[in-house]
Design brief:
The complex is a heterodimer of chains A (219) and B (75). With 219 residues, chain A is an alpha+beta fold. Chain A has helices spanning 35-45, 49-56, 88-92, 126-132, 136-159, 173-178, 182-193, 201-217, and strands at 4-9, 17-18, 29-30, 57-58, 63-64, 75-76, 79-80, 95-100, 105-110, 119-120. Chain A folds into two domains: 4-133, no CATH class; 139-157 and 169-218, no CATH class. Chain A is globular. Chain B has helices spanning 3-21, 28-39; strands at residues 64-67, 70-71. The longest helix of chain B is centred in the N-terminal third of the chain and has 19 residues, at 3-21. Helices cover 41% and strands 8% of the residues of chain B. Chain B is built from two helices and two strands, in the order H-H-E-E. In chain B, helix 1 (3-21) runs antiparallel to helix 2 (28-39). Classes of the chains: A alpha+beta (219), B mainly alpha (75). The complex binds iron/sulfur cluster (2 copies).
Amino acid sequence: MIPFRRTQLQSEAQFSFSCSRCLQCCQHKKIQVNPYEIARLAGNLAISTTDFIARYTTENGSFLKFDETNTCLFLGSDGCRVHLDRPLVCRLFPLARHLNSMGEEWFSELEPEEGCTGRYGSKGSIREYLEEQGTVPFTRAADSYLKLLWEMMDKLEDSGSGEEHGEELDNSPDEDEVWLDMDAAMRSYCSKREIPFPLDVEEKTRIHQNALQQWITKQ
Amino acid sequence: MNKSTKKVIAMAAAVASLGASLGVATESQAAVEKAKAKVDTTKTKQATQIKTATQVKTPAASKTSNQIKWENKKK
Ligand code: SF4
Ligand code: SF4
């Protein structure tokens, strides 16, 4: 169980924190990465999401890989080597963000990392802190993927197994298998529809989410 | 394997991975196994534990996403 200092916080709650970059919190952690975050990180390294997932993630692409000393592979001597594209949870720290299927959002403040030399202040709010950390495109993408996730969970709950309803769903087998690898899914999706492969991450994410939505709803 | 069964398996797998990537504990891995077991009825059905040992466990029913740098003290 993660020890929270405070929880059930709204975005206007008082919070201020200044990180001194001691780099401790890039060790012994699990960093969750959704398809948008993978696309941002892959873009930072100028590789495809397929390569990124193979080289830098674990658990089917859901978490960043850490090395044998349990240190993030992106931690360099001067700090995070992918700072501009670092994942949402790295931006949030020492906060956690929670969101439920009714769209309710709240935050928790974690107990400080042992030895963390960051400084807590008395001015500012969670919202201001998040703005400084550039979380907006990340929370937007996470929220859109979450909507799709809730929909898939509902579908699975409703159907038990689609087989019982005798559905014949017209899906492409290759897309079925690579949905969460954005580049692989988009390559297949775009070439079938003869639309150009999007290079911009935001645009690619938008098309990816539309495609996923179509796949979920298609009967 | 027919298309709908294949889709159920693919969707359950997508839910498990996407759920983990968004900090949602799901029982979807078990759903993947269940869907696969339906295909091969000779296979014994088995429970599959989701790797959430270092995460706050959120019941799937509450549908809450926890976006957090999880502690992982092992190793
Ligand atoms: S991605 Fe960067 S900030 Fe996040 S854990 Fe790795 S090194 Fe640290
Ligand atoms: S442990 Fe604290 S001071 Fe050190 S890098 Fe992390 S947040 Fe910053």
